[in-house]
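ARCHIVE RECORD
Type: protein–small molecule complex
Small molecule: 4'-deoxy-4'-aminopyridoxal-5'-phosphate
Source of inputs: curated submission
Record status: active
Notes field left blank by submitter.
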Amino acid sequence: MKYDRSYNFSAGPAMMPEAVLEEIRDEMLNYRGSGMCVMEMSHRSAVFQTIVDEAEQDLRDLMQIPDNYKVLFIQGGATLQFSMIPMNLMRNGKAVYIESGAWSKKAVAEAKKVGEVTVISSKDRNYSYIPDCSDLDIPEDTDYVYICENETIHGTTWQKLPNTKGHVLVSDQSSMFLSRPCNVSDYGLIYAGVQKNVGPAGMVVVIIREDLIRDDLENLPVYMQYKTHADAASMYNTPNCWAIYCCGKVFKYLKSLGGLEAMDKINREKAQVMYDFLDQSKMFHGTVEKEVRSLMNVPFVTDSKELDAQVVAATKAAGYDNLKGHKSVGGLRASIYNAMPKEGVEALVEFLKKFEAENS
Ligand code: PMP
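STRUCTURE (tokenized, with ligand):
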């Protein structure tokens, strides 16, 4: 690879498009004649305001976000949303959570501190499938139904959204944000930590339908209220300026590639290379049900922990980084987000094929 970079299969922070990194490099010392780096710039300056405004508009264009939704750039990562969501959206103190993996499990734990949570889980088979949500028993006064649309650790993706029977749908899209088209009106709230599919760590994008933003939460700490961020257009306090700048560049880059339809096509092709290999391999096996396997995070194992460790070491030595699986699943995990080139996946598969041939 150019610049002697490795193919980095990290679950996040993860690879960024090389063209974007080059642009950032070129603007590093003097951003467009401003005399300073974006890192050094007042967030109240006109130059920075243009950066935020463009970032929001480009994201709106990419996702075709309707006008009755606010786009918020908030700090605290995706994790802060585990708390902000129940604190802001539980009017009746009730929600239904679909626990399809480690990240929705964490969200359940936080929501339980705020209200009554009904949990529908796929824990019985180590989260290798997504529960059937076509006909859930949802009490009328439930405030929302919560899903994690792509489980980063367990490697499952929702192919069809749950039938919420008219209740608000809340989705954690952290590890599949902007990887495929998304009909925003199907949701009340979408959020995504940006360090996987978009930019540097330290920021979450929240897309929230306006009628869900409450103005009767004076007792909630000010930073925890969506209203605070919405009223100030994400500038209540000093935002993560650097992340907004870098994400804005990625939004423009995705537009230039043809938007989310184009990304979906590329991502399907890329994941196919991985899954075609796993489906025919005698040494490596995928760990989740085929219908729900993720296009972004591909966990796979051999039949022995020792062999798993040997493969991880061999891939690392060959320049394929961060393939060790999460401890709860074991084995390996290839995270192949938007910015992972198809050649990276092809090269990894060639390497694994060779490893299998030489070691079986
Ligand atoms: N949700 C999902 C699906 C994730 O993968 C992660 C991070 N890996 C989080 C939430 C937590 O994100 P953060 O570290 O930005 O708080």
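CURATOR ANNOTATION: The radius of gyration is 21 Å.
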